[in-house]
Design a protein that fits this description.
It is a single chain. The chain is mainly alpha-helical. The protein contains 2 helices and 2 strands; from the N terminus they run αβαβ. The radius of gyration is 15 Å and the shape is globular.
Length: 81
């Protein structure tokens, strides 16, 4: 989901159902993305997702932010692009 889309009741319903069905110890990572995937989402866009994860249960759902600096996969040292 894009971070500019607030967490929805449908997602919460899905995650609560999944928690009952999936094996114990399963974890879910929510990865908010900005509208432009070449930029990090702003803190004001991440906060609703952090609150959502807390409501659902941080032992099951966590917010994860990927590294936004692109690395050259063909470089021996992974130099930035």
């Amino acid at each position: 989901m894009r971070c500019w889309q607030p967490p929805t009741g449908e997602l919460q319903d899905f995650l609560e159902t999944a928690r009952d069905i999936w094996p114990s110890g399963t974890r879910v990572a929510l990865v908010p993305l900005a509208a432009d995937i070449n930029h990090e989402p702003g803190a004001h866009q991440i906060q609703p997702w952090l609150r959502f994860a807390e409501r659902v249960g941080s032992e099951f759902v966590q917010v994860s932010l990927p590294p936004f600096q692109m690395r050259d996969p063909y470089s021996a040292v992974g130099e930035p692009l």
